[in-house]
Amino acid sequence: MNKFIIAGNWKMNTTITDGVEIAKNIALNVDQIANLKSKIIICPPFTHIYSIFKEVCKSKISVGAQNCYFEQKGAFTGEISVDMLKAVECQYIIVGHSERRLYFKESNSDINKKIKAILTNKLNTILCIGETLEQRKNGTTFDVLKKQLDECLADISEEEIKNIVIAYEPVWAIGTGVSASINEVKEAHDWMRSYFEKKYPNAGKDIYLLYGGSLNDKNAPEILAVENVNGGLIGGAALVPEKFLSIIDTAEKLSV
Ligand code: PGA
Question: N or C end of the chain: smaller count of CB under 10 Å?
Answer without folding.
Answer: C
